[in-house]
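Lab notebook: predicted structure, single chain.

Context: the supervisor wants predicted structures on file for every construct in the current expression panel, including those that have not yet been purified. This is the next one on the list. No modifications to the sequence; it matches the entry in the shared construct table.
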Amino acid sequence: MAEDRITRILAELARRVDGGHSSAGLCEVTTDIVGVSGAGVMLMANDVPRGSLCTTDAVSALIEELQYTLGEGPCVDAYLHDRVVLEPDLADPRTPRWPGFSPEAVAAGARAVFGFPLRVGAVRLGALNMYQVQPGALSDDQHANALVMADVLARWVIDVQADAPPGVLATEMEQGGEFFFIVHNAAGVISVQLGCSITEALVRLRAYAFSNGRPLRDVAGDIVGRRLRFG
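Prediction complete. Output recorded below exactly as produced.
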């Protein structure tokens, strides 16, 4: 039964996604295969969000940016705890979580969110994030399809990046992605200014942006442009 599901999904991907070489296409087809309102893929490394590989619409793009900015949300938890994270009612959860993320995501139109970790063997890569405009849990069939898509996406990332030069992001991954390079540059500057790790610098940067009600990239631009200094 599981092999039949995988064969069917791979056949659908081969039919619709240009040989599997489009990250945007992979996110789009995920919504149809799983049957959700939208999807995105957050890549992470060393417990820190690195950027969004792809999104399907404005809501999924905001969901990814909120997680990147705040360091919390379904993708972050799915990656950190290496398990599926399901929230069928983001507006009225049984256990409140993600105090910064949830109100903004609900206001944007997401009522249910689901995070599925991306991993190949022991290598953790990030998470597949999906949302629904109506509250409700995934069906067993949707859950099984999402697990297959998470595996497909993880293997796609590994295969594509393997052909790129060391230290360079693969072109296929940059197309349609948002990797917030200026934020990483700003974190490097803060790390030098405060004599702290990059991870702590990102935490400080997020905290500053959140407490001042400013977009993370705008604050990063001020730091890189030497208009703002930490410490």
